[in-house]
Specification:
Dihydrodipicolinate Reductase, domain 2; about 350 residues; six-stranded parallel beta sheet; alpha/beta; 13 strands; 2 domains; homotetramer
Chain lengths: ~350, ~350, ~350, ~350
């Protein structure tokens, strides 16, 4: 059994991760760090986990934790992980960071979007962007894995085959995404109160959401040239789920056949991607799973493709992909401890 | 036009009250006090109110406000109003307090349930319990009106005819109530986050909720003897609404006819009470209105009556009843500025 | 008092319309036709309306109703109104059709999108497209008013100034919309069950939703040339509300100033349009009102404008705009019986 | 691997059962019968199950199915199972009926509450009431297992120790329950539409819900004398979950210690019952699990106990307990294929 720890374990992403690790066949959950609940049992914060994870929450001490664990997950606000991780820690412990600090390889892009200096530039070259399906060989060898954002994972997976196979006009990409409220984290703020979210729908982060440069970085790499996207997130009154509706102009000669072939070529063998063709995904189809479902339609009137991806933001969009990356890194079966289909359909 | 002010105007109860006052035919809304948003426009906090109430929020200054307004509403956490109100203020300004400080006439009961000393005992005898339908003559002359709690209003109105007409066993009363989440106020706490309330149901305040002594006080007065009730509130994943399911053993000889006659006798002429008989109320039937809907069934197997009341916790349960009380106090039509039926059924 | 009737009065759009008419200062609600509930009281189907509208539902008889009423609203599935309306009826009664039959002036477009023949071509030239803010002079004289669709109203109002002022590339328009579930009507089908909609989000009608040609017809008229749009509706787990996120490439030299000036020029005087600038609308801001709220952002990176409109699909998107059109047609104050701000903010 | 089949597999209870059986370590899912979807794949009705259960739905043929399967689950409207099951079928196949037909051992009680004749009286004595924790020895040998109702399971498990240990007044029991909307099944009716349930709360079946006699039958058996209860179900706007708030007068001398001891005596060893003491359960704590969580408070003022039970109505309240019963009957580990804690806390 591999010993694992989580720093930032009581936020929504952290707690989802804990619940997956607690049921993982090859993992011994050893350490849970918390900012706010030191000394309490994890299951007193999440009573649903009684009997499944009753560990006592400890101080957030990456130094000590990295000596007790072979893999350490960080689920912290941005800017914090990069202050904690060191070369020495990475030599003895695999770090999987669910935050944003190591996702952007170009420091100037980080500075531009996050409006702050990067405090750990020297480790950026060690970091691998942990989009499991696209980076397996690198993830398998990395000691610092930057787990992608939730919108990012959904958007990149939905668009990757179209961009990589050169089927769409790069400059025309528009990603219109919707998330459930767990995406805002377990933070006490007015905007996240039940009555402020319930029975309403809104856009936010229009033109400046920080997942934009991640998407651009990865699509640019796939395209072989700089790719700029329009990304607009929205908030829907539900707990979980992301749906990304992606628009792009088709290149000449590209139609449904080419689109379908590209998706099949890239994903037919992937156990955590479900291709739905023209029967489109709904977020509930992948709720509580690590699966990304993708469907698409070609519009002959407008010569556009509308590709729609759906995933569970806390699983494939956070804790689940972190476990998937750990599985790749440690040589476990890639689906160990992860569900690809919903156990309970509602 | 009567000048009115609100202290604590940006909480949910306060904001609902503001929206009613802003549309009231006889009121000039003159002063809005706020703890957290001084200097901002009310409509910047509640953009839905743009054009309807764009007043700038001011410091909470009851002294000054009572000189500018003829009626002042207090929507504050318990224990605060009783520190602010004075005899002098009451001489020049009608105070309608939506908090708990002046609801209980027996100071020892207050101390027992609120675990704190009452700081304004000398004014308690001036206060009238503002349950409009039951206290009209007193409200019409009072300068200090203690607006009842939301659960309280629903429970007392539902049970009053049964208790007053001596149709049920006083010791058998059980009130099982459910509220929407606005009842918890606009307070930044984990329990009120969307994802903590959504898709779940729970009881809280079991055996010790502070609305219990209010209900007992008023039912005791109606019964002519001390009446103890079992009151259990629950939280449902919706914004608004309270439903109280009230159980009591029938006295000998009492059946459906007597129950129906009692409700008709007490409420047939009330414009804000809708008697539904055995077709029972749902909270949506009274959402966004000042109406309390009441239905009932007699169970011949168990010799109990199950009486069910429903109201909108922010209107009849808070701001609406406050306006109703103001209307009574100032001699306006009792329904001025208040809706008794839903304009929009969903 | 003008006598009004509604055919199809128990669906969601019809019921919303009834509730507005029942409270309208110049209307005497005279006739309610229903397919399924003949002989029952309206308020037995919608108990929230008890005391507000207790009319008995009658057979759907447009002939008879048009003799009893001066204005008749039709809220029927598409293809039905055009079988019922005749020249004779239009001579004695103003018809406001909330359905799709008279919205498209080009019969071939109707046939293409609705996959059926149009049965009332001879009356199409009499019909005026009832988008109140854009067609006032025509509406004021029309006896057959085709009330626009919900998505349509939101999309056209949001884009009209940008298209008419020639600020955006016509071929680049993408409209990504979201609706609450009342948009699906009060129809007993699996897709609309609580548990099938709750906690999920999906796109539907991708590339072929029937509101597309309406939007194109009106934007083409504003642009002075044929305009094709990409329109994608989605379903969110809430009762009411539409949010349209509209994307378009800016023409050279166009920036925030030009965009803002165009909106001000077109809408500054409109009582039912609220311009929010870069502070964007949420559907709750206009819930239960006839207002459309519009905000926008210019993205300098992509040279696009993202304009976001929000409205209540049952009011401005259906019954409210129908009343607004009636007000225009009958010379009432345009806001008679209609709220522009929310009485209850939650 | 034991071959299993389900008749009525596409309703919510049936589908939940299918999803559990599809992932069960000792079961080969062999036959799925459907009334409405014959010839379609199960996963086309529930796309979330793609890859997990792609069986083609067959005609509902209990005769044929009982020859192909060793265990057959019936998830049918009441009155249908009793027309299908025969002695011959029971000789070759274990029947686990999720409906009501075999739950009541007294035919006259069935007739009284279901208002119809029982068509299979001769098999009633073969049937065992499948409340797993209370009937294990009988279940282990039964060929006809009557799986209890959802409210029933929650209510009986919550009250059993108090009744059996003679701690409460039998005549004082009041059960106030709340269910999510899956409890209404996947039936196309107006009452179950999203917009009719969302943002509202109601009681239904007051005094005459059919789960009442089940609860009385089992509590009477535990008490050793006839026990009548007051049972009132409510509907909350959420997909899953039942919470039962149970009230009873304490016998003399009974206090918190005796209550706690009784629960511990009965349930301390039960893997699917979580005793929470005075920290009360919420439905989300057991969502997606087979666990029943129970908490309680003693009210010294009223001398009552308030015991609160929570379960997932589709799992412990339907499909999960059916699997648990199968596990008992076939000698599998009782928790095979069943989760006792939530994998995903939200």
């Amino acid at each position: 059994m591999v010993k694992a720890g989580v720093i930032g374990s009581t936020g929504y992403a952290g707690a989802q991760l804990v619940s997956l690790l607690a049921n993982h066949p090859h993992i011994s959950l050893t350490y849970l760090g918390s900012h706010s609940y030191v000394g309490k049992r994890f299951s007193s914060i999440y009573p649903s986990m009684q009997g499944s994870c009753d560990l006592v929450l400890e101080e957030e001490d990456i130094e000590g934790a990295s000596r007790r664990c072979s893999v350490l997950f960080l689920a912290l606000p941005h800017g914090m992980a990069s202050k904690l991780v060191t070369k020495e820690i990475l030599e003895r412990c695999v770090i999987i960071d669910l935050g944003a600090d190591y996702r952007l390889s170009d420091v100037s892009v980080y500075t531009q979007w996050y409006k702050s200096e990067h405090t750990s530039q020297h480790l950026l070259q060690e970091a691998v962007y942990g989009l499991s399906e696209l980076k397996r060989p690198l993830i398998a060898k990395a000691n610092l894995i930057a787990n992608p954002g939730c919108y990012t994972t959904c958007s990149i997976l939905t668009l990757a085959p179209l961009v990589a196979e050169n089927l769409i006009e790069r400059t025309s990409i528009i990603i219109d995404s919707v998330s459930g409220v767990t995406g805002a984290g377990r933070v006490e703020r007015t905007d996240s109160l039940f009555c402020e979210c319930n029975e309403s729908f809104k856009a936010y982060g229009v033109t400046d959401h920080r997942h934009t440069p991640e998407i651009e970085q990865e699509l640019s790499a796939l395209a072989g040239q700089k790719t700029v996207v329009q990304f607009t997130p929205h908030l829907a009154p539900m707990n979980r789920g992301i749906l990304s509706t992606c628009y792009a102009n088709l290149k000449d000669g590209v139609g449904e056949d080419e689109i379908g072939a590209a998706y099949a070529k890239w994903y037919a063998e992937e156990s955590f991607i479900r291709l739905m063709g023209t029967s489109l995904p709904e977020t509930r189809f992948v709720k509580n799973t690590n699966t990304t479902a993708i469907g698409w339609k070609v519009d002959p009137r407008t010569r556009r493709v509308i590709a729609i991806g759906a995933l569970d933001n806390l699983i494939k969009g956070a804790g689940g992909q972190a476990v998937q990356n750990m599985n790749i890194r440690f040589g476990f079966a890639e689906n160990a401890g992860l569900a690809s289909t919903v156990v309970n359909p509602l």
